[in-house]
Amino acid sequence: MVPGPPIESMFTTAPGLNWAGPGDHWSRAWATETLGGTAAPPAAVSSSPGSAQAPTPRDIQLIRASLAVVEPVADRATAHFYALIFLHHPEVRALFPAAMDVQRDRLFRALLAAGRNADDPAGLTEYLSGLGRGHRKYGTLTGHYGPVGECLIAALERFCGSRWDGETELAWRRVYGLISKIMIEAAESAAKTSPPWWQAEVVEHRQCTPEIAVLTLRPDQAYPYRAGQYATVETPWWPRVWRHFSFASAPRPDGLLTFHVKAVPAGWVSNALVHRAAPGDVLRIGPAAGEMVVDHASGADLLCLGGGTGIAPISALVEEVAEHGAAGRSVDVFYGARRRGELYELEALRRLAGRHPWLSVRAMVSEERVSSPEALAGELPEVIGCHGPWAGRAAYLSGPAAMVRRASGALLRAGVAREAIHHDLVGELA
pTM of the entire structure? Predict the structure, then answer.
């Protein structure tokens, strides 16, 4: 919450746009080989008839029916899809992580999201545009979309069985044509103004608990974001494995970025950041994303719930309100953890509350006995139901997915409008 001493910015000497290729600064920093000129050249998304046509209502019906058939065997279908890609286009294997289990799951969730939103053009465009921009950091090029589409069609045909026919294939070609068009246009538009990723040097690594660390990073060039958003992070120890982390502070004058990271079981990136990263290490950061930002024009009072390291974006939001000016609004923060020792950000929040009368901070612990006013006893979703009233509030929730879902339900029962509840369950995003 309280910025440390200023650190010299690299912005004045950084290139306008970074790039990946033989001999680039990023490859030297990681001492890794890059994909030097082996990617497929730009090509049409698909040369198949009907690929440029918008999907019809009948197409959408067929897409959803075929997805329902494939869903029970999604793991096998997606494994077959990637096997086809790597067999026929081995040059793209370097774009993917060594372990493909998470990647396979993400693919089918993305297909399900596209199928479910096919009749919602605005929602589909927003979702796919984000995917298109995000795929830039993987090294995805326009020329990759055509071959990927053909492998996808082949995998679906195999696992749809008797439900697959010429009409279903044409429907998928139309939908995939639309999907790839939106993603390509979003990626090409983003490429005009921002890099696909930023290099960021670790300048501070603070161990708050045995499993939680606060990392401060210095990006190689100006990094735009809003308090409440998140970014994907990649480490040199697990190339091509990206994980989401929320920014823990509002944008700072010195351009530094702060993340709170908890090492989770089997969490490759989180464990590397908590137990291995040190000042001087170089990470990669994808573009900022997420819609959990404060509307300063609304003036609504805020209710902020942070569980565990989910307090990071809540702290950033509170900082932004303090910098922007509360303008008569009040802000109530509920900070939950399993044990008192995990409330690593509590003192910083309470110091901020001591300077701003509009801010109230309450802590709660679910697995230890505590005495008031040190903290409240219980789990965050249940505790907020005992306080209030919350009707008319704008609510911001961050933490484990189960906590966010339960807290959302408690707030709805407490009279908070559904559209006033903001969260980013980034662990479930493709």
Answer: 0.78
